[in-house]
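[Q] Does anyone have a clean structure-token version of this?
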Amino acid sequence: MNIGCLFGSFDPPHAGHLAIARHMLKAAKLDQVWLVVTPQNPFKQDRVLSPEHQRLAMARLAVQGEAGIVASGFELDLPKPNYTADTLAFMRERWPHHDFSLIIGSDNLAGLHTWKEPHTILDNHRVLVYPRPGIEGHMAVSDLLYHPSVTLVNDAPLMDISSTGVRVRLRNWKPVEGLIHPDVGLYIRQNSLYTGKTD
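[A] Here you go.
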């Protein structure tokens, strides 16, 4: 199968994640999109995350009823720190019958050259890029924009929504209807998430 992988902390998963996954599924002619719940991002060691099992539970709630979209927690069990190049190498070995594409925002493409073994990623995977607000200037100077493995996905939704923004709204008792799946909202309330967390 052709599988697109959208890596993230999903703390919490929101409507933007699902909109990108749905669009990539069709526009890039993928069989599935995996929302891969990640441990601590090596570039964001100072960030405090919700427990891994709770982030995975929320991701699974967010994708229920979404045809072709799957929440996966396999990376949580891999040796840390987790680098995308290492995780993709594990995936190629673990599931050799699948072709994996990496789904990233345009901000991540602009910084891909700073990742571990970026050329290994590009040599082995298609990189599907969706737009992020305010990053167009950085994109213009990215040499990777013209790499044969990189595809800018046309008409991908430009979502000005973030997990940080959702957490801030929740912490300030502001409505989040339409931003997160109702069952994710219920899970957050039942587990008292984000009530005192700083960003």
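[Q] Thanks! Anything notable?
[A] The chain has one domain: 2-190.
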